[in-house]
Amino acid sequence: MGRLSTAYGQAVAAHRHAAYRLAQARRALAVAAASAAPDTAELVAGLDRTAAALTAPPAAGPLPVRIGTATTVDGGFPALVPLGAGHHLVVDRDARDARVGALLRTLVLRLLAAAPAGTVRVAGLDPATLGATFLPLRPLVDAGVLAATATSEAEIAALLDQAERHARSAGQATGPAGELLVLVAASAPGPRELARLTALTHAGDTAGVCVLLAGVSPGAERTAPRATVLRLNERYALLGDPPGHPFSPDGRGLAAPVQLDGDPQPGTAAGLARQLGPAVRRDAPPAFADLLPARRWTESAATGLRTVVGRAGREPVTLAFDDATPHWLVGGRTGAGKTVFLLDVLYGLASRYAPAELQLHLLDFKEGVSFTEFVPTDRDPSWLPHARAVGIESDREYGLAVLRGLRRELDRRAGVFKRHGVSRLADLPPAAALPRAVVVVDEFHVLLAGADAVAREAVDLLEELARKGRSYGVHLVLASQSTTGIESLYGRAEAIFGQFPLRVALPGGGGVLDPLSDAASRLQVGSAVVNTAAGAIGADTVVRFPDAHADPAGLARVRHELWQARPAGSPPPAVFRGYEPAHPADTPAFTALAPAAGAPVALVGRAVDVDGTAAGFALDAVPGRHLAVVGTDPTGAEVLHAAVTGLARQHAPGQARFLLAPLVAEAQVVAADLTGLLTAAGHPVDRLDVAGLRDRLTGLAAPGEPDGSARAVRTYLVVFGVEAAAAALAAPDPETFRSGREELRTVLRDGPGRGVHLLGWWRGLRPLADDLGGAHQRDDVACLVALNVPGADLGLHLGAHDLAWRPRPNRALLVDRHDQRLQLIVPFVRPESQEQ
Ligand SMILES: Nc1ncnc2c1ncn2[C@@H]1O[C@H](COP(=O)(O)OP(=O)(O)OP(=O)(O)O)[C@@H](O)[C@H]1O
User: Fold this and answer.
1) How far is 812 from 814, CA to CA, in rounded Å?
2) Residue 275 phi/psi, 5° resolution?
3) CA dihedral 347, 352, 355, 360 (to 10 degrees)
4) Is 335 touching ligand 1 by the criterion CB < 6 Å?
5) Which of 494, 638, 690, 829 has the greatest number of C-beta atoms within 10 Å?
6) What does each C-alpha distance from 287 to 16, 544, 640 come to in angstroms?
């Protein structure tokens, strides 16, 4: 109500005039009192009280608004009602009475004219005349001062929701400062909505809502005690006592009938709209378009990056990535608008700086689709030309890969600086100019969660990037719902966050500010506290920012414009979608497989890294070059399918043969598919059952050419569900007394040197260890793909006690015992596997 008090100040002159007229009336009535007209003395007293109220303006109070002329025998004087600051008006007839319609329109115009521009907003509801009451005020709708009239039940309910929200937030001083919402009911709505309207009239003087309610008759004084009640008869209106400023001592109201003012002059609404429009537009929540520059890609990033993020009051707020605020820390509870804020920033930057000036690395660790709009999809082939790497629902390992890449970039930049003898990005010669890189990590606490090797390395990398990034033009934006209590940051938080002078606290994100600051405690969604002094008390600016997603079509237009303007040949970003399965056919390294000299590779999945490189094992002649896929997850069969089809591509027909033993039901479909593919590619395929497998092992283990085949021909023994053959393998051969396991172990040791490789799917580590002859023989199968096997068991099997493997769908751990490689992968599956 602060601004209303200014309005009140402006209105005081009018009051004084009214008071003068009252004094005149009083003198006239005093004369009449001498003739002892019974009501006259009372009327004089009432007028005295009103005059006193009018000539002594309260510090912050209602606006006195004229409704018409009170008539006395001696002439007329203005009849005023207090409105705003917890004062309301109830009229007993509704707008179907033309006088009421005119009165409401007049009141709206007078309130708007009296208050400073931009401090009063009006919303009307009118179920009885379906909005006709407000039609003459149409220019005010166009100016954004008057909302479209609510006429249906749903519209009225939505309007009341909005008004109640406004009342609540104004009451907590979190709404747009001092804005008065005038709610005009030209006719009474249904009982439920009416009850909500009347309830709004009970809200205190800070609630920022003023209700003008027409069409409510008896008992209004009781149900709406903070409203002045106006009753109409056929000829004039009778004005009740304004609460707090009564005309009468006994509640009978003004004892002079009031002739209501008629409709304002034609053109008044249009004139007012012209005056108020610009101010209202400035005061409206900022629009997304306000964040964008007039012309695209005209700014230089040499000394920093700057963008408008929203408005403080009416002033645009620009934030920078520069020497003073190289990195930003953003806090806000879930749903507080973090993603929207980040999108505002990203679109603002991407519109100002060409891709040659700015690169974006975007990492999102939450379930959701924060940055999807920046990458090509089936629906929209566009991408943001600045985006280099985008991780959606990222794994922590992916985050780590991005951070490692950025650390390499720091080293590269250091080399460039050295070569040119400079220490600042701005000093590089134009031919060697480097783009600034903005790295956004949404929900970064996920990356740092726990105290495992990933968290430790991520903290180290973040610290280094934060420390050196300022000079090298690499800027971090870390956003999270919780910036405290992150275990891996203990003892390190100060060193890292100390490099983040710019803090943005969204609702619930006060953790990024000084512990004693409560600046963010009452923020609404759509606003944020911005602090460029690392959260220090007193350095706060409250910013309102627009909802980038409020106009998806407009947003898409901006994106498409940037995409169309991309430099020729610029590639789409490297995208990692955590939820997406990996298909061999979409992996360039897989589709490029062809017969070649050298050891064939068994590709088993896609690495969780920036480029999504194919991951696999070289099957060379070293003992132990066999593949074990372990876990009950049926993906095991899929991984073998991919490995085998990949191997098949590396052999011309006649150079390889495949022995397929699908021993478990889950593998039958996959094995049948594989048989078809291999046969079509011209490779011989033998299908084996348990007995066949046992036989072949003997042949493969025998000295000489494996199983009678020519040396140059590779043999791939592919067993799905090896444990299903456990009994058969354990039994000794009646003639040789050698068990199938012994034959198997011979094949494992000697096979690779003779071109024989086993690719097996074991559904548990235990049967694998049994087949190997104990965990100490683990190197006999050196290539492992672990699916859903517990980290502790895997650690035990591998003899690696600090193994941080947490099984999860669509992920596997690749282990190569020979080159000590541990790699998180997305295992290959056939597209059909998701349909089965
Ligand atoms: N400036 C804004 N004006 C109006 N509404 C907004 C604004 N910003 C966000 N919102 C609303 O808040 C919702 C949540 O915003 P957003 O998704 O950005 O939150 P978040 O903090 O990223 O939440 P989460 O972490 O759960 O994804 C949005 O769907 C939007 O409707």
Assistant:
1) 6
2) -75, -45
3) -40
4) yes
5) 638
6) 42, 10, 54
Torsion of CA 351, 352, 356, 357, to 10 degrees: -140
Residue 16 C-alpha to ligand 1 middle, in angstroms?
A: 49
Residue bearing the CA closest to ligand 1, atom 15: 337
Half-sphere exposure of 494 (CA within 13 A, CB side): 1
* CB 464 near ligand 1, within 6 Å: no
Check: complex ipTM more than 0.90: yes
Structure tokens at 63: 């606006």
DSSP letters for 220-240: HHHHSTTEEEEEE-SS-EEE-
Q: For a pLDDT cut of 90, what percent of the chain falls above it? A: 60
Q: Are 149 and 131 in contact (CB under 8 A)?
A: yes
| Binding site membership of 526 for ligand 1 (Cβ less than 6 Å) | yes
- What confidence tens digit (pLDDT) does each residue in 143-184 have? 778 888 888 888 898 889 878 877 876 655 444 446 788 999
- DSSP assignments along 249-273, one per residue: SSS---SS-EEE--PPPTTHHHHHH
Residues in the chain: 836
Interval between CA 547 and ligand 1 midpoint (Å): 7
- Any idea of the CA torsion for 587, 590, 591, 592, to the nearest 10 degrees? 120
Ligand 1: atom nearest CA of 310 is 1
Domains of the chain: 2-283 (3.40.50.300), 306-551 (3.40.50.300), 603-834 (3.40.50.300)
Tokens representing 162?
């909005």
Element (H, E) at 618: strand 614-618
Residue numbers belonging to the annotated binding site for ATP: 332-339
- SS3 breakdown of the chain: % helix, strand, coil, rounded to 5? 40, 20, 40
Ligand 1 touching residue 310 (CB < 6 A)? no
- Name which residue sits closest to atom 23 of ligand 1, judged by CA: 335
Q: Phi and psi of 790, rounded to 5°?
A: -60, 145
Ligand 1 site-directed mutation target among 174, 339, 512, most atoms within 8 Å of CB: 339
The total of other beta-carbon atoms located within 10 Å of residue 265's CB is 9
pLDDT level of residue 138 (50, 70, 90 thresholds): confident
Question: What confidence category does residue 11 fall into, taking pLDDT thresholds of 50, 70 and 90?
Answer: very low
- The whole-model pTM stands at 0.67
Task: Give the pLDDT confidence of 15-29 residue by residue, as tens digits.
Answer: 444 444 444 444 444
The two three-digit tokens of residue 244, written as one number: 């707090």
Task: With CA atoms as reference, report the closest residue to 166 among 123, 198, 127, 108.
Answer: 123
- Shortest-distance atom of ligand 1 to CA 340: 18
**The two structure tokens encoding residue 227:** 């409203």
pLDDT digits (tens, 9 = 90+) for 273-306: 888 877 766 666 788 988 999 999 999 999 999 9
Distance 341 CA to ligand 1 centre (A): 8
Ligand 1: nearest atom to the Cα of 506 = 21
Q: Are 715 and 709 in contact (CB under 8 A)?
A: yes
- Residues 6 or more apart whose CB falls under 8 angstroms from that of 119 comprise 3, 4, 7, 178, 179, 180, 283
Among 2-16, 458-472, 477-491, 612-626, whose mean pLDDT is lowest?
2-16
What is the whole-number distance in angstroms between the Cα of residue 505 and the centre of ligand 1? 14
